[in-house]
Amino acid sequence: MTSNHGGSRQGSGRKALYEEPTKVIRVPESKVIEIKHFLAESKKPIFNDVASITQVDPTTFMRIPLASEKVSAGFPSPAQDYIEQTLDMNEHLIKNEAATFVVTVSSQSMLGAGIDINDELVVDRSLEAKHEDIVVVWIDNEFTVKRLMIEEGKNRWLKAENPDYPNIHFHDGQEVVVWGVVTFVLKSFKKHK
């Protein structure tokens, strides 16, 4: 007998309900409903995408050589001297010292925007959030990082940049505060051993 199934497909099968591996266990029959209720409650959206928040203290001063010409993906000529000025990273990344924080990300809800777990975000609390800005939002006593969507009529909602995570639509009575606007993502491309 031959199978009409085409084999496994990427992305098919059961979807993970929890952001970690699961394990089969034996439980008493009298506790099954209680455990199912507990698990159903744990599947409610968790918005805490932030591992830590640190206020910027730009007391250090370091000037880094700045190339005067833009660099293509190829190799520049070693015969040319590109260094004409220096750049202070504090001046480059921080526009309002008192309102700037570094936020460490703890989820992959913004992976499509290039933001991954443990990336650090430079967040300016003094900026007014505009349509499609990436923002840190305080919602239901948790922090989340999402793209702010503002539709006609002032309808606001938060867009996840990963299809595995839900968008967030606000409802009446929900405590929502746009905490700050993300201005830079600090990311290492070198793997640490």
From TrEMBL:
Residues 66-182 form the Peptidase S24/S26A/S26B/S26C domain. InterPro entries: LexA-like (IPR039418), LexA/Signal_pep-like_sf (IPR036286), LexA_repressor (IPR050077), Peptidase_S24_S26A/B/C (IPR015927). This is DNA polymerase V. It comes from Acinetobacter amyesii.
